Amino acid sequence: MHAVLGQLNGLPGVAGSLVCADDGRVLAHAFPAIFDPAAIQEAARALSDAFQALEPTSEVDDLLDLRFKDVRLLGKAFPGHLVAVLASRTTNLQLLVLALSAATAKLERVAVAVAPAPAPEGQPAARPPAVGPPPPSHRAAEGSRVAAPATGLEELRRRLAAGPPAGGGRGPPSTT
Predict the structure, then answer these.
(1) Report field, pTM of the whole predicted structure over 0.70
(2) Mind giving me the DSSP string for 39-77?
């Protein structure tokens, strides 16, 4: 799962991604450490609730696109699960939708491969353990004086971590 989430995170403007069960339990996520795990879990639960409330049909696309002032949260359902991506508002939507479709196909195969065996009658089914972010693939050497290169994605992460600007709030989320 982490490899697929890493591929999604490699898209320009993507700040993080997650996979959750349809009940809102986070199974895996690839968000930077600046994101509070409780907030990630709450976002997964909210997306799950939204998908259940909307109950996508054959007439409705199974993609949920929540747009806010500076970011957008896209969620896509696949059997028993959801995959979600947090991206900047200016991220190329067509590319993101194509990447989400490819990711759900890969994750569906992975989910089938790691699905727990059915529990014997009268016993609850075993739940897979929640998985946090993968270990960092590259760390600066301790004592290194060279800073990691900054990218537009890093700037987005820094701004999200900093919160609203001093002297005023951001206002309510935009729905356009």
Answers:
(1) no
(2) HHHHHHHHHHHHHHHH---TTS-SEEEEE-SSEEEEEEE
